[in-house]
Amino acid sequence: NVEDREFVVNNLPVYTEYNITVTAINYKGPSAENWGVGFSGTSIPSGKPTSVNAENVTLNVVKVTWTEIEQKLWHCKEDDQRYKVQSEAMNGTNIGDVETTVNIEASSARHGVNISLNGGVQYQIVVIGYNLMGDGPPSDSFTMVTDPGEPGYVTELQLTSIAHGLAVTFKLPKFPNGNVMKYHAECIRLSDSSPAPGSPITVDASGDPSELVEIVFKELNPGEYYSIVVWAENEIGEGKKSKSQGRPGFFIGKPPQPGKPIKQSSSTDNTMVLVWTMVKAPEGSTPAQGHRIMSRLVRSSRRRRSDDEWTTGDNVNTWAEPNNTYSLDGLKLGDSYDVKVSAFAVDPNTGLEVETLGPMAQYESGSGGAKQITGGGSKWFIALIIILVLLILIILIVCLIRRNRGGKYPLKDREDKYRPDDAESYPLKDDMGAFQELEGRPNQANGGPKPYYHSGGGDSDDDSMAEYGDEDHGKFNEDGSFIGQYGPDKGVKDSQPFSTFV
């Protein structure tokens, strides 16, 4: 059928080469032949490598050789033909972490392959051929014992800074080359190559490849860098040494205050050379990791007062000498500058920085170098002004208090003189709000004090205003009031005044 473009031939041998010819035919006859070469489908190799052999080349290197699989047994094209070499340790637990399977192209395996194995271990080696369809049958196993030797480098080495110390962690070497019995660690100060306190340290090994070993060095100076060296030891001897460098950590807290910066004679009109003393941190406290010079313009020859912010210079990290030196450049002739030293430290675990500021000094640039301004007179003058202002405020407050208190007057003294001691026990009004008679109150007849407003003898209901008859009653109105009687234009009231008293 001319509509079909595919023709399937079944039941052919696996990966067999065939010549294929295609011809078109019509009513006039066949066309010219169009031919090609094709293969039947692939399959896994049916053959296996033979004559497997292995021998030690060097420590941890073994060469494996074998007889290759016949080409017709691969059942695939050459580009898809591969070998894998598998090794399995038969004894011991100190076998490290070597690669147990090595893959190689068949075209490269005619002269064998080198693989890495641990020394002093018995291995079983197998070679397998495979292609895209899968693995073929394995070869016969070959058993060998590798040559023992010194351990290799420890693995997963990591250095951690702790307070005034360094902690190093690691695992079993990739190539123990035997049974690892001990681990050694050494801490060396880089500045003078001297060993740190307690160095070296030796610990026993368990031989477990998954075990994380930790060794800690204490009482180290956080201002120094140290080199940590770690190596393993087996029955043959000590192995290769792994190295790492680091600086100890410190306790969280501020470093000690640095000394006051002092101007040196080498200063010029435009440069100020400063020297300050580094203070050693007490035991158990945070030492300074470095210093910074901070400066600001205080008074300029071009203006009375400057609002410049503090400027921080480069870090000074000198630990070998007791003093540090810093050159402050770019000064202007006649200008005054505040300078101080900042001691800082950085926590290696959190990255946070803490600092302590030292005492401030003020210097003026001029010929012959910068001159220090003590500022003693100005401080005493400011203190005197403040004291005077406080005294004036205190005097003003006292005067205001006395003015608002008020004073005594003579009538008040007279009233207090004749007031009974228990006057508060005699209310003038009852509960209904009406005035009460002053009954029971002490009077002159009962021995009480004489009221200052009483001019006669004892109290009597017959008292009247007769005693005032000779006086002018016209100055009282009918309400008994004399308000308004003493105006500037005092006139004569009624000639017949009325008395409201009975």
Description of the molecule:
With 502 residues, the chain is mainly β. The protein has helices spanning 376-405, 410-418; strands at 17-22, 25-26, 29-30, 34-39, 50-58, 61-67, 82-89, 101-105, 113-116, 122-131, 134-138, 142-145, 155-162, 165-171, 182-189, 201-204, 213-217, 226-233, 242-246, 262-263, 272-277, 290-299, 311-316, 323-328, 336-346, 353-357, 361-364, 371-372. Strands 22, 23, 25, 26, 27 and 28 form a six-stranded antiparallel beta sheet that branches. Strands 7, 8, 10, 11 and 12 form a five-stranded antiparallel beta sheet that branches. Strands 16-15-18-19 form a four-stranded antiparallel beta sheet, with no helix packed on it.
Q: Helices and strands in order, then pairings?
A:
Blueprint: E1 17-22, E2 25-26, E3 29-30, E4 34-39, E5 50-58, E6 61-67, E7 82-89, E8 101-105, E9 113-116, E10 122-131, E11 134-138, E12 142-145, E13 155-162, E14 165-171, E15 182-189, E16 201-204, E17 213-217, E18 226-233, E19 242-246, E20 262-263, E21 272-277, E22 290-299, E23 311-316, E24 323-328, E25 336-346, E26 353-357, E27 361-364, E28 371-372, H1 376-405, H2 410-418
Antiparallel strand pairs: 1-4, 2-3, 5-6, 6-9, 7-8, 7-10, 10-11, 10-12, 13-14, 14-17, 15-16, 15-18, 18-19, 20-21, 21-24, 22-23, 22-25, 25-26, 25-27, 27-28
The main β sheet shows up as: 6 strands, antiparallel
The global form is elongated
Question: Which radius of gyration do the C-alpha atoms yield?
Answer: 57 Å
Helix count equals 2
Instruction: Report the end-to-end length measured between terminal Cα atoms.
Output: 160 Å
**Which oligomeric state applies?**
single chain
Beta-strand proportion: 25-35%
What's the rounded overall pLDDT mean?
Answer: 75
Helix-residue proportion: under 10%
